[in-house]
Amino acid sequence: MTSISQHAALSDAFRDETPWDVGDDGDTLHEECGIFGVIGARSASSVVALGLHALQHRGQEAVGITSFDGGEFFSHRGIGHVAHVFKNQDIFADLPGMMASGHVRYSTTGGSGLRNIQPLFADLADGGFSIAHNGNISNAMTLKRDLVHKGSIFQSTSDTEVIIHLVATSRYPTLLDRFVDALRLIEGAYALICTTPAGMIACRDPLGIRPLVMGRIGSSVVFASETVALDVVGADFEREVEPGELLVVDHNGVISSHRPFGDPAPRPCIFEQVYFSRPDSILGGQSVYQSRRQIGVELAKEAPADADLVVPVPDSGVPAAIGYAAESGIPFELGIIRSHYVGRTFIQPGDSKRHAEVKRKHNANRALVAGKRIVLIDDSIVRGTTSLKIVQMMRDAGASEVHMRIASPPTDHSCFYGVDTPERSKLLAARMDLEAMADYIQADSLAFVSIDGLYRAVGQQDRNAKCPQFCDACFTGEYPTQLTDYDADAVAGETEA
Amino acid sequence: MTSISQHAALSDAFRDETPWDVGDDGDTLHEECGIFGVIGARSASSVVALGLHALQHRGQEAVGITSFDGGEFFSHRGIGHVAHVFKNQDIFADLPGMMASGHVRYSTTGGSGLRNIQPLFADLADGGFSIAHNGNISNAMTLKRDLVHKGSIFQSTSDTEVIIHLVATSRYPTLLDRFVDALRLIEGAYALICTTPAGMIACRDPLGIRPLVMGRIGSSVVFASETVALDVVGADFEREVEPGELLVVDHNGVISSHRPFGDPAPRPCIFEQVYFSRPDSILGGQSVYQSRRQIGVELAKEAPADADLVVPVPDSGVPAAIGYAAESGIPFELGIIRSHYVGRTFIQPGDSKRHAEVKRKHNANRALVAGKRIVLIDDSIVRGTTSLKIVQMMRDAGASEVHMRIASPPTDHSCFYGVDTPERSKLLAARMDLEAMADYIQADSLAFVSIDGLYRAVGQQDRNAKCPQFCDACFTGEYPTQLTDYDADAVAGETEA
Amino acid sequence: MTSISQHAALSDAFRDETPWDVGDDGDTLHEECGIFGVIGARSASSVVALGLHALQHRGQEAVGITSFDGGEFFSHRGIGHVAHVFKNQDIFADLPGMMASGHVRYSTTGGSGLRNIQPLFADLADGGFSIAHNGNISNAMTLKRDLVHKGSIFQSTSDTEVIIHLVATSRYPTLLDRFVDALRLIEGAYALICTTPAGMIACRDPLGIRPLVMGRIGSSVVFASETVALDVVGADFEREVEPGELLVVDHNGVISSHRPFGDPAPRPCIFEQVYFSRPDSILGGQSVYQSRRQIGVELAKEAPADADLVVPVPDSGVPAAIGYAAESGIPFELGIIRSHYVGRTFIQPGDSKRHAEVKRKHNANRALVAGKRIVLIDDSIVRGTTSLKIVQMMRDAGASEVHMRIASPPTDHSCFYGVDTPERSKLLAARMDLEAMADYIQADSLAFVSIDGLYRAVGQQDRNAKCPQFCDACFTGEYPTQLTDYDADAVAGETEA
Amino acid sequence: MTSISQHAALSDAFRDETPWDVGDDGDTLHEECGIFGVIGARSASSVVALGLHALQHRGQEAVGITSFDGGEFFSHRGIGHVAHVFKNQDIFADLPGMMASGHVRYSTTGGSGLRNIQPLFADLADGGFSIAHNGNISNAMTLKRDLVHKGSIFQSTSDTEVIIHLVATSRYPTLLDRFVDALRLIEGAYALICTTPAGMIACRDPLGIRPLVMGRIGSSVVFASETVALDVVGADFEREVEPGELLVVDHNGVISSHRPFGDPAPRPCIFEQVYFSRPDSILGGQSVYQSRRQIGVELAKEAPADADLVVPVPDSGVPAAIGYAAESGIPFELGIIRSHYVGRTFIQPGDSKRHAEVKRKHNANRALVAGKRIVLIDDSIVRGTTSLKIVQMMRDAGASEVHMRIASPPTDHSCFYGVDTPERSKLLAARMDLEAMADYIQADSLAFVSIDGLYRAVGQQDRNAKCPQFCDACFTGEYPTQLTDYDADAVAGETEA
């Protein structure tokens, strides 16, 4: 099938201006999106901007906001940080109304630029319809093929657009019926915030894989991927949107809850606890900071080390390192200093090239580390390239021993639910056993927290093997949904052969 | 019905950069588009850029090119002149292939920016499909309403997109059948260049209201709105695409002609001769320069003046002024000097504000004009505001008499066929009779060429009142098609009340 | 001597945005600057912007304005057209005060960008001092060397900055004395507008090589390079600043005239009449349009041709062509159509590459030219490359004969007085005799107006060989000043060897 | 005296693009500059870019690099982060040569934009001369007045330019003599890196107030404000440039040391240890991280608190908090989470406006803090506004008690040596006593480390009151140099009255 790459002049020009980068060499898992919506608030669009600002750890490469003023919808989207795309106050005057929703996304895949930035919007027969989506629809390709054959024309390459066309072509009489009709056809992970002339719709997939919470500021209702966004806009946390729940809020603030999918057992993503969510968020009733600190405690119990210092890989390893230090009695110290100025790659002078890149982000605190036995704490290992560099940096700074402790089980399966993971064959833990991994990263010892230790840290007694309390497919390969668009080999990975 | 204005960050940012403007105070009629396509040429996209460059008098505010390399379609679009949007040579490397088509447009109405820039493109079930359109579909709103109700989602606010959705949802088996099915449903004026994986389609509406010509460079086939674009790319003119003709060219250069609408009598737009087309184009076998010069001759016969100098309003009045001077024996002189630097509006100093704006564009050649009786030649009068300023400028420069002669009949009806005209009530000739118009513009005398004089100048013996040889609705109100989307009042204008 | 190229990030970034180009392949002589100043006017800076807008034919690549509000000086400068650099109205609010001056320049030579854009400004011991200069100082290098040795630090590579440092380091007591002291040390051509806290100074070099006129709007005093700028701002022409005259205007409008150089015989540049000045300007009491038309008359007398059409090379050849046609009785017709959209170079398709570039700017009016004998009228021949292309274009369009007539004598010497000329060895007339030139441009015949014919056309009886009434060094090699910085060979050129 | 604000179009346009801000509400002291130079290295300019990248905590708003290729000097400067201004690799090709130096600066004061970005450069009589300066010259205004009266023209409003003009106008025979002649005339704080055709000059003021270190990469010599920059470029630390030492390095790597000021007792800035320098730098033989950790230890001894958690104000309070926790036995926990996305101010929704701004940067870790007694550790208090907000944030999150401990003595005097401090009357500690400060920030208790405690933490036995080992004027008011440009009142501040 032919396709077009509409690398419009504008988006290209803009990309050149983008002065930041992700700065992690692709060796980290990334949540792909954050969503936020508010209804019944004055300056709704600026509340959304503030909320999205607090969700940028979930997606920092593009941002969009759509508002509705009772008559018309308005939208502003751009590539870059929230503070960049919405730097002019005037923009909010062009996004009037008391209902608004927004979206931050991690990457603009496929060079399709602006067209894929959400919220997506369409003029349907009964009025405007916007949608902001965190997650991934695992039968989007299959559904799209059908829709195109019947005459639907897609604007973007986003899986999310499938939902809009399903709504547009559904034969049910009301918009809500058409929307539920659409959701019944899709599989995968989704937290959605939609706006229509009648109000706002927020929902989570039947398993609640991706998070979504509800809060209030006075009489206005707020939805957000995480509670930290409620804190930042001054909203009170009310409750989570339940897995499989669909909440409809009208312009008078009247809320109705719908459960079109019955009552399946929830499987929220456990990696939100490990890495994705902000430590100051509350997830499933659990403080993310405390979960991570507790993982460190479990790790210290399961994998003690004889060492002088506990050193976190900044910043994500800090809470677990505090827990590890507290449990083990080994002092917590900043053996690695992180630069606040991460940027694009420079040309490096010849002989110092090898380490310059990682040094721009992290630098060893030599005076502290020299001659010491170090326990390094990191959140996870993906490809292993960063771990190798960090271990080497500690040794170059004079560390006598380096013991690596990882605050999650080995990541040996890809995620198909809205997290940007390398294909399975690139995952270090899918390629090697523990010993080989320790050799690869050149650590004196290496240990991961156990899956049960992880479940304990997040407040469970243990993992219910028959019906796990979380989606932990990246650690176990037990995917809780069908994966229609992906063939078995892709899911299993070549390492299984 | 709600609608969205997606004034994306990027397009806004870009608009600020646009350093030119139309510079005519809205007191001119504008052709809205020019189109160009080539198939079977190396560097097809750069040939298209060159061709569009020569068609910018038909549309200078936005430009787009789509190419096809045998496998995929590529596209680049932007706001601004061709030389600006395609200033980087690298862009052509990103538009590979031997087939390409492009479009220049006059305005980006409705703030919808980039989305409305043509060629429009869609991934249909049988592959990519691009369309570039010059003209206006007069039942587009009606058709769109139907399509949206059946589930089609529109990307743009352009009437042209209706054609794509009609093709996408047609039930005919082949693309060509589906395309003809779509054309049968639309009314109005259209010259179209479409590209599909199988080749290029060029066609004109049954009356041939908008122009389209075919040429060749070696074995490659070229389509363009005007012959001047053939000259500039080094192509030989072959023939006009006939009114109601649909030409299909495949990648081997095989051309087939189709006539799905039978054989209605053509009605090409006569204003192309008066103003829209470049003077160095050949239109319907007639040199546009000679037509305009001959209008001046007819005007001198019909409306002589006792004067010292014939002065053209630059630049469009020059050919008619040469004809008028030659016929009348009065010397042709440049009594008005046109600045090459037309730009946005400045703050003007208080007491000279009244004339500063027009003076930035036109300045009287005082030494020449002072004490002289002047015949001023202009192409047309729309609102009359420019004529008033120009007459005043001649008087301020010391002209003793100013006789205005207009190289077209009075423009007293709006155009609904792709020309940007004010609503009827704004047209000077719809509001006043000849004497009142002369008073309004403060000329000593005023005359327009007669409708028959105009027909004579373009090579007809006279106007065939029963079945006019041209569309001259802007002069006569005789619209040659239905105008479904426009109610009778809009067409007739309030001046008829 | 070492030097720095401060290609600041900003200026480079900006250059990429510049969407226009000069578009003449370097085959034209260019005036390098235009200057404008006003004192005693409300919104002085916007008056200056308007005036500079009318002077952009003298320099379109960069523009600057400096204003003074009674306490402080303000400045805004940029690369690009006046309408681009001053497109935001807010800029004028940042340029307050009743005195302002400005400058447009042709090119930003040497990549030095913003630093060389005038007016130059310095904080001298007795306050701010700005200077805008049209012309060229022919001993600037020599003076600069001295100044640097004494400790002066130059900001720009502009010859104009020498004047500021001479003023700054002069030992005379008053600013006016120091300024005259500086002028006595410099040689060459200069029209200057300076602003100081006390008021405005305007002056011309002793020979008055470059033009400068004075006008009034009510009680405010205006200086400009040409009268057309007075017209555009609504000022009344008062008189020329006399060669060697220095006019000082204070904030009460009191004007004092000084003549520090005695009373040498003036030698204004005759090429201003031929090409540089706008046709609607009055220069030395003579209408430029009439001068050019009269050159055409002289040319028709001196070099008649047996032909069917007189065709101007647009736009500069038009007035002479009108004169030639009137005198010869051969009809004046537009055989070449000029595009209004001149832009950067595109990739051209292979076989049409040769003519594509010139065709983008000029296209033959084939229907008119085919089979005709043509007299082509152009203003001058510099390198000859454009003439060759234009003659060829006429032949390709079917002209049976092409007779080239040039409205100036052969340009066979470089200018050192502020005009951008190629070095002498590149000038066609310095390399070849008449016959060889005709061969080179492939014309059936070629003639230039004689130097005496030119003097007659501009109102003289003939050229006073002992003491010519004009600087005509580009035609005669008789330079009216010393050329300290240029050695004899550079002036004479290698063709003299 | 009049002055000009040359807010050039370009710099303004650029500023709009700058997507970051300082984000501290002006309630922090800022080092104003970082400098870096290398001689004898291939790709010298890219080594400098890498070094400056590591020094951006000393100045992140503008950056410049100058290089020398043996013949010419080259320069590139811009507003923004290093990674932004040098994002295109091509820039380094335009900065060729084996010697380069650069500068980052905190702010572009005075709206003067690009002109003030260092290294400053001038073409002196004996060749190019560049200078990069960290510090402040406290008699710059006085010297400038003299220089301007003698005819020097200043390009910038930077105090640094005074040095260049003193060099340019010195009558000594060699450049080195002229440079020392200039230094003898200036007073204040300076670390300088200069480049000349003969090589590089690095020097520190006689008291060594600002830091400067020397390192080597192979045969090339490197100078930098801090050792962290040596780490990042892969250089080995060699030694500090001594206070009052002037090092000259030629292109063969030959180094000569000069001591033109005799041997005064050094007084390096103690605030470098407290806040300015990166924790991974070594300063005066002391690890900055260890100094800060040790301040926390001293603080715990001097001002213990009965509390449940030690919470750092991120990120600068972390090392002291670790020391405080270790000494006191109270657990170290992250009670405040810092956002990595700091940006410009948004419109905030009405009722949450009060705290939104600080919440965008810092958010309380509610689950941890609620019901706890907190010891908050911050590096210093300037105006007190941030402390007030942070204390309030802890209380809003449910902290039962908040005890503030500050890792420096009260800051009650302004700095005149290159640190951006508010005027004295704005400093909280200059306005209030300890108790009033505690009330103002609404803390349950407040304590600062003592001046002797601070001296102990940085490795001294105590402060030598007669001849202090450091410049600690911001804590004591004992300025170690004359302050010619500042009158006594400004120094003492109105609070002394």
UniProtKB/TrEMBL annotation, chains A, B, C, D:
Start and end residues of each Glutamine amidotransferase type-2 domain: 33-252
Annotated cofactor note: Binds 1 [4Fe-4S] cluster per subunit. Binds 1 Mg(2+) ion per subunit.
UniProt catalytic activity: 5-phospho-beta-D-ribosylamine + L-glutamate + diphosphate = 5-phospho-alpha-D-ribose 1-diphosphate + L-glutamine + H2O
Cofactor: [4Fe-4S] cluster; Mg(2+)
Gene3D superfamilies: 3.40.50.2020, Glutamine Phosphoribosylpyrophosphate, subunit 1, domain 1 (3.60.20.10)
Family: In the C-terminal section; belongs to the purine/pyrimidine phosphoribosyltransferase family.
Known role: Catalyzes the formation of phosphoribosylamine from phosphoribosylpyrophosphate (PRPP) and glutamine.
Protein known as: Amidophosphoribosyltransferase
Record organism: Novosphingobium sediminicola
Gene label: purF
